[in-house]
Design goal:
This protein is α+β, with helices and mostly antiparallel strands and 132 residues long. It has a domain of 87 residues: Double Stranded RNA Binding Domain (2-Layer Sandwich). Helices cover 36% and strands 14% of the residues. The protein has 3 helices and 3 strands, in the order ββαβαα. The longest helix is centred in the last third of the chain and has 20 residues. The protein starts with 10 loop residues before the first strand and ends with a helix.
Length: 132
Amino acid sequence: MSEIKIPISELHFFYSKSSGPGGQKVNKTNTKVSLIWDVNKSTSLSKAVKERFIHKFTSRIQLDGTLQITSQRFRSQARNTTDCTEKLHKMVNSVLRPPKKRRPTRPTKSSVEKRLQQKKAHSDKKKSRQKV
């Protein structure tokens, strides 16, 4: 499958002050980045991929159908912005391929015989401890 590209026009970035310990310029710069993306209105995802995305990340998608990703790992706004977009990229790539269907299998003949022999040995051990 080809890689999906989400247009920048679908992404909305908001900036705010980061939490954490203080220091110089702590109350002056808005380095925390919040990325908001409306999953339902997105035109870059196919219907199947969108359904898998919504199913997998239900707990992260809000009631109005938007996904919010925040980043405050770095001290610069630009690095936090790229971090948010990378997080979104990883989330979308995790649902690109449909999951493999489980094919039911049967135990081998030898494993069934081995299990029955172990059960018989355990049963005989218990029987030998009983009173006559």
